[in-house]
C-alpha cells in the first residue's frame, strides 16, 4: 500500500498515475523508498525502460525490436545528413 505522502513524492518526481499504479512499479518503490530520490528514480526509470523494451543492449544483452529493424534498414547510400559533392548527385 502506498501512502498519500508517497504518492505525492512519486508525482513530484514526474511519474504519471498509470506508471504509479503498475504492480512492479509499486514493488520496486516499496523495496527502495528509503533510498535517495536520485537512486530511487534511477531504479524506477530502469523498470519503465525495461517494460517499454527500450533498455540499453549493453545492460540486457538483447536488442529491442526497434533496434533490430533499424539495423536491417541501414544502407550506406542513404545515410542521413550525408553531404554529397555536386559530382555525386
Cα radius of gyration in angstroms: 20 Å
Mean pLDDT: 78
**Which residues sit in consecutive blocks of at least 5 with pLDDT less than 50?**
none
Shape: elongated
Q: Report the count of strand segments.
A: 0
- Helix and strand pattern: HHHHHH
Distance between the termini: 64 Å
Fraction of residues in helix: 55-70%
Annotation field: number of helices:
6
Q: Beta-strand percentage?
A: under 5%
Q: Specify the structural class.
A: mainly alpha
Question: Biggest sheet, open or closed, and with what strands and sense?
Answer: none
Salient structural properties:
6 helices; mainly alpha; elongated; about 0% strand; about 90 residues; about 55% helix; single chain
What does this 3D model show about the protein?
By secondary structure, the chain is mainly α. It has a domain of 55 residues. Helix content is 57%, strand content 0%.
In short:
Residues 52-89 are annotated as: Disordered. Helices cover 57% and strands 0% of the residues.
What order do the helices and strands come in, and which of them pair?
Layout: H1 4-12, H2 17-20, H3 23-32, H4 37-52, H5 57-60, H6 65-72
Helix pairs in contact: 3-4
Amino acid at each position: 500500500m502506498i501512502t498519500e505522502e508517497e504518492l505525492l513524492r512519486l508525482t513530484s518526481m514526474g511519474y504519471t498515475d498509470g506508471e504509479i499504479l503498475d504492480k512492479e512499479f509499486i514493488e520496486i518503490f516499496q523495496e527502495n523508498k528509503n533510498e535517495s530520490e536520485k537512486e530511487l528514480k534511477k531504479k524506477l526509470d530502469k523498470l519503465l525502460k525495461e517494460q517499454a523494451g527500450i533498455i540499453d543492449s549493453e545492460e540486457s544483452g538483447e536488442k529491442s525490436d526497434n533496434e533490430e529493424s533499424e539495423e536491417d534498414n541501414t544502407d550506406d547510400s542513404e545515410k542521413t545528413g550525408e553531404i554529397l559533392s555536386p559530382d555525386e548527385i
